[in-house]
Amino acid sequence: MAIVIRLDVMMARRKVRSNVLARAIGITEANLSLLKSGKVKGLRFSTLEAICRVLDCQPGDILEFVPDEGLEALRQAS
Q: Is the CB of residue 21 less than 8 Å from the CB of residue 11?
């Protein structure tokens, strides 16, 4: 099982650039980049809350659960 981060999709929908979002939520652009790429092991609720506030979205708009077999198909498609 895996949680896939769809932050880049929501940022594109809202037309928000990485540097603007990073500044608004109080993290570095480097850490936001790691978050967008899914290369993080965890995410603070306070950070998730700030992202949702700035992007006017719900956590489910950013995070998606993909079962193991779906994750493998997703990796092969990339």
A: yes
